[in-house]
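Same chain as my last thread, 77 residues:
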Amino acid sequence: MDNGFHDIMMAWSEETNSRDIYTMIYDWLTFYKSEIRAKDEVDDIIWRMEQGDEIKLVVEDFVTGERYAKLRKQFSK
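reply #2:
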């Protein structure tokens, strides 16, 4: 399951366009939602995406922010 997560992190480190990373995050979250333990964080990210939060902010929060640290911890092994 975590291959997509690592792809997202690699895309960030390679300075891939935020819009592309945003799409990767959305696809990964919706595909693996039932397997991710940090349910509140997943729901929050998807809610922000559906509400139209700024793409760059959602991506930065997902990759580096404290807001989603629990989610990242599950996959950053």
